[in-house]
Amino acid sequence: MNDPLKLLNGKPIACVGAGLVGAAWAIVYARAGCAVNLYDANPAVLASAPERILSQLGALHDHGLIDEPVDRIAARVRVAASLADAVAGARYVQESILERAELKRALLSEIEALDDGQLIVGSSTSGIPSSAFASGLRMAERVLVVHPVNPPSLIPLVELVPSPETSPDALAFARQLMLACRQSPITVNREIEGFVINRLQGVLLREAWAMVKDGVASVEDVDKGIRDGLGWRWAFMGPFETIDLNAVGGVADYAQRLGPLYQRIAASRDHADPWDDALIAEVEAQRRELLPRDQLVARAHWRDLRLMAFAKHLRSVEES
Amino acid sequence: MNDPLKLLNGKPIACVGAGLVGAAWAIVYARAGCAVNLYDANPAVLASAPERILSQLGALHDHGLIDEPVDRIAARVRVAASLADAVAGARYVQESILERAELKRALLSEIEALDDGQLIVGSSTSGIPSSAFASGLRMAERVLVVHPVNPPSLIPLVELVPSPETSPDALAFARQLMLACRQSPITVNREIEGFVINRLQGVLLREAWAMVKDGVASVEDVDKGIRDGLGWRWAFMGPFETIDLNAVGGVADYAQRLGPLYQRIAASRDHADPWDDALIAEVEAQRRELLPRDQLVARAHWRDLRLMAFAKHLRSVEES
């Protein structure tokens, strides 16, 4: 199934929450050809969304990352007058509201009142398991986490996290929808803290902070270690494929030879200590030396341009 | 100091060990304009080195990654007839022999007999602290680890790891030499197991293996999590810069908000368990499903092409 419209039975997708994440999701779905109903309970956020979407579509167009005229894609996004206007008749809801379980639960109760018995809801939450806000609802079997890396309009990875109540059909639908919209879905089989992505980032960050705390390396040098070293392979291969290709006999050969080293590294570190105030102040001071506070916004813009250039690079190598 | 020849006082660099790593170092130094004396105690390895170097230079040329004719660079690499022929008169030795401390110690004893009192030795070792093979030698203060990511001819990151005996001058020389040869040196202030790079890779790998063991995610999905998600930013920013730009108030703001999450993630994992045989077999089986054993070599070649395409991408965005 590569046509999202077939999967959706011609129905629209409701994007509820039109902030940074919700607007980027609207682009993902509209770019793939879907009709999008966009809604936000905050009128100011909703009012600014179409212009933000147009601006981001323009940037994607300038980098050669969209194939259709910007206006044609933008025209697929309709600003809805109410939650009911957005959700009634939709096949799928992408929820991207504030990260508070009680708000999500309240929203789901409202959505349930509009449910035709088919509606599937994916939550963009980065950390709240959907059982925390969907459990006990009639539609709980059609709710799951559909967590993007920001912005999903640029970075393809999406974590699908079913709750114990989520049905296999709802999970399969979300997976097919992501594939049809050219995202890269992975399945997190259990509602584990941090899901997969933040766990991987989390262990790396903790070792990074610990090395700074111990005076082993500076913030700048740890960053170079990834940027100028490990990040080169991780830009197009995962860590398993990396080590699979780093030993003549593949990953088992690698694990036999280097497993003990990594075990010693892990055993040498107490991972449970928090980042204390002194360490946070030290890392903050080193970062502000490298990037003054008043340049944070400009650097974030630079990052977005680099992400688009990277996306274009991937397109060109994957097409060649 | 951007001219390596001034730093070297016109003297050559001796690359001792001409396998994969040593040959790639010869390219790094010759490409920067240095005269290289290449030696390997194994005649077959030494005999094949010039052709391997030419072939790699050709690939770099084809990807637009070198600015001079291949032959002119290759002509700077001289195959030495003996260790003495390679080292006598050199300013710096890049040691890239087998990863065994006793072999490195024996080599250093031979090198010390040729030492003019100025010679500095950098070891390519990925895991042996130089104190394990240089301690007690007269020239110990001029020995340190200069550990590349493979191949250094492509990936710029180099870890400099002084031993307690290494002099500040020797460390500063190695750092200047790396910068002059367009590598990206970082300093590992203590001889910590795994240095910086392998510690970062190690904690990420251990969490990856643990998630597969627990059935949280498949090998393929963990890899996608990096390749299609986290790796996008780490391709051009380190983890500290990433989080510094991911909170309005910078890294301290981020740490206050998300530190507790990462602490809970860390606390939820016992890091000291080894990778057992059943787990290794499971990961191996999943990888062989994705990439049959007889395609490992072809895929490693694909990886090298992707690394070159990535290097070209970085060149183009950094020049624009």
Would you kindly provide a written description of the structure presented here, covering whatever features stand out?
Two copies of one chain form a homodimer. With 320 residues, chain A is of the alpha/beta class. Chain A folds into two domains: 4-187, Rossmann fold, CATH 3.40.50; 198-319, N-(1-d-carboxylethyl)-l-norvaline Dehydrogenase, domain 2 (Orthogonal Bundle), CATH 1.10.1040. Helix content of chain A is 53%, strand content 11%. Chain A has helices spanning 4-7, 20-31, 43-62, 70-74, 83-87, 101-112, 131-134, 168-180, 197-213, 219-234, 239-244, 251-267, 277-290, 296-319; strands spanning 13-16, 36-39, 77-79, 92-95, 120-123, 143-148, 157-162, 184-187. The first copy, chain A, has an eight-stranded mixed β-sheet with strand order 3-2-1-4-5-6-7-8. In chain A, helix 2 (20-31) crosses helix 3 (43-62). Chain A is globular and about 55 Å long. The two termini of chain A are 25 Å apart. The model of chain A has no long low-confidence stretch (mean pLDDT 95). Chains A and B meet through strand 8, helix 9, helix 10, helix 11 and helix 12 of A and strand 8, helix 9, helix 10, helix 11 and helix 12 of B.
